[in-house]
Amino acid sequence: MSFSFALLVIVTVASAFVVVSTRNIVHAALALGFCFFGVAGFYLLLDAPFIAAAQVLIYVGSITVLILFAIMLTAQTTGPREAGGREPRGSAQWKLLSGAVVLALFAAVLLPTLRVASWPLSAEPVRDALTYLTRGLLQTYLYPFEVASVLLLAALVGAIVLAKEERSE
């Protein structure tokens, strides 16, 4: 395992842990940006510089900024708390239970897939990778990308509507 791969794993996993464990949503959004940077680094290690650049431009640039704007518009940076600054009762138990359920479901899907998948030791580089990429983006996966863009637009509009309702009250 190379040093750069190990460093990317540490950065990506640590920032993903911060995303799910912090109470401050601004810190979570910034950690998500670092996680996206780590994924872009993985693409660079896989000799896919175009996809790495797209990852940085689209996810680190656009999605992280979109999330930060939504946070700023709603102006609520932490979750609900009881009087005295404590978390609501049962919150920690609920987090542990829901985390365990999600982990079990993830393992139930991932482990059989890992057993069945074939893992070649070396792969031949694709001679015209950009042609395959554009064919996949503009033909094979055009509808999923369009659905994702409409979903992100709906999330932005929803954040603006919620922020406007909070300010008018």
Could you explain the architecture of this structure?
This protein is mostly helical and 169 residues long. 78% of the residues lie in helices and 0% in strands. It is built from six helices and no strands. The protein has helices at residues 3-21, 25-45, 49-74, 91-116, 129-140, 142-168. Helix 2 runs antiparallel to helix 3 (49-74). It is globular. 7% of the residues are buried. The model has no long low-confidence stretch (mean pLDDT 79).
Write the layout of secondary structure elements.
Elements lengths: L2 H19 L3 H21 L3 H26 L16 H26 L12 H12 L1 H27 L1
Helix pairs in contact: 1-2, 2-3, 3-6
Which key phrases capture this entry?
169 residues, mainly alpha, 6 helices
Summarize, please.
The chain is mainly α and 169 residues long.
> Number of helix segments?
6
- Percent strand equals under 5%
* Element-by-element helix/strand order: HHHHHH
Structural class: mainly alpha
